[in-house]
Amino acid sequence: MIRINDIYMPLGFTDEMLAARTAREIGVRPSDIHDLRLVRRSVDARKKNDVHFTIAVEASVKNEQYILRKFPPNKVSPAKHEKYTVNIAEERTHRPVVIGFGPAGMFAALILSQAGLKPIVLERGGDCDSRAAAVELYRTKGILNETSNIQFGEGGAGTFSDGKLTTGIRDRRITHIFSELVRFGAPAEILYSGKPHIGTDILRNVVKNLRNEIISLGGEVIFEAKAVGLTKTEGSVRSVIYEKNGVQTEIAADSVILAVGHSARDTFEYLLGEHIAMEKKIFAMGARIEHLQSDVNASLYGRFAGHPALPPADYKYAVHIPDGKSLYTFCMCPGGYVVAAASEKNTIVTNGMSLYARDAANANSALLVNVEPCDLADSSPLAGCELQRNVERAAFAAGGSDGSAPVITAGGFITGNLTPEFGKVKPSYTPSVKFALPDNILPDYITETIRKGLPMIAAKASFFADPEAVITMPETRSSSPVRILRGETLESVSLKGFYPCGEGAGYAGGIVSAAVDGMKCGEAVIENG
Ligand SMILES: Cc1cc2nc3c(=O)[nH]c(=O)nc-3n(C[C@H](O)[C@H](O)[C@H](O)COP(=O)(O)OP(=O)(O)OC[C@H]3O[C@@H](n4cnc5c(N)ncnc54)[C@H](O)[C@@H]3O)c2cc1C
After folding, report:
1. What is the pLDDT of residue 419?
2. Could you tell me if the CB of 125 is within 6 A of ligand 1?
3. Confidence of residue 162 (pLDDT cuts 50, 70, 90)
4. CB within 10 Å: which end of the chain, N or C, has fewer?
5. pLDDT at residue 158 in the model
6. Residue 158 CA, closest ligand 1 atom number
7. How far is CA 157 from CA 36, 188, 274, 282, in A?
8. Number of folded domains in the chain?
9. Distance CA 429, CA 406 (A)
10. pTM, rounded to two decimals
11. Which residues is 491 bridged to in the sheet?
């Protein structure tokens, strides 16, 4: 079986057209090709007068060795199918404990269960269904549940997301993660889409199915169970203490994976107090911008906008401000919503999500500026968390202290003048928004970078010049401001048997890289014994 890359296909192509084109590309007859399978499909919209798909396929072809010799390896190569396997581990005195059931904790617990180690998972938030009710209450009435919300609960921060599965990392585990997600109910197209996404509506079922698999293999998932303490003996972890319904329970454990995400500020504070080594790390803050999705489509797809074969257009931009910082877009959600993503009372936090269909009127993305450790005056490893919290509280006050998010048009943001009226773009944030200037919310260098950077992005993408685009503030939780230090065995440098994992510990950014890191920590627990 061989893989054939870079096949140009028009929008709306059929299987027959793909088979014929593949044959032509490698100079064989269509009848010489068998078991043709799509393995990659990306939209190429670089030329507005020629928007098309770029395809890769795998197939069995007559005289494969001859064809492999005839074409360069970037065009034709042997198909590779690495299988990821989990071996059954030897029985242990204690079951491993996984703290947190986001992508990192889920995939760590999944492979530990598959190795027969029957992990115990502690998740501070509720299961998907009760969590969805809590998120809905906050979305519609502004009543925040600090235990279950967009950050905390089954599936972690990604459950109420766009479910984008794009990642900057390369790792052999990614193919396995995708096939596991499909096994648990994700659309099969994530296996070949150039920009795979699941959508929050489908993701919730995927998460439940994954949990059921862990339980069916002997694992246990305890919801509304917040890890509040660790005990140690001679530099190794001895037990974990968790609290559920006001009652504390101790579990003896010598392997503990900490996958608590970037919003577990109280857990970070506890660990710092226990002298677990951690440091400040680079993170980012800014705001969410919304445009009409139809304007984004028109700008990026030209006359092809609206073609039924095309997904809603997405984008990614970065600009460097002369003598200053960089502004970049992040976590773009086509046809989605800006969501209320706070986990602490009297704060406002934004983020973005979308359904599988991505059919809402607005496109949104975060406009982010990096915050370097040297930008933080305080030397504490948790100085970044403190800055996030201050910004989130300032936003709450600027929104009128009633749960409204501060909002401004892009034109108003750039000129510094509030025009208290929306144009064609209406904010999707609920339950309410209030017009406010950014100056009392975001640090000056972030406001200035967004002010100067927006026209620079507009020079690359016309829809960004729209003064009626809406900016909702602030976006503070795009990445973790802290890293919990670990050594070669992936254990904390301060505590043996304790594995800081995923985004909160500073080793991932996004669903896929968090899941990869969860698997790495699970493998380490299996190997280290
Ligand atoms: C609204 C939104 C949209 C997003 N969209 C995308 C996207 O489209 N694509 C993408 O790649 N990324 C997206 N992200 C980011 C992505 O969700 C995170 O990168 C990812 O979830 C990190 O995984 P994690 O397992 O490390 O941590 P998390 O997902 O944050 O999971 C940590 C879990 O630990 C639990 N926990 C915390 N403290 C404790 C404790 N003391 N005891 C027990 N449990 C605890 C939390 O309740 C939480 O469930 C989005 C995030 C949000 C909030």
Report:
1. 83
2. yes
3. confident
4. C
5. 83
6. 17
7. 38, 23, 26, 20
8. 3
9. 10
10. 0.96
11. none
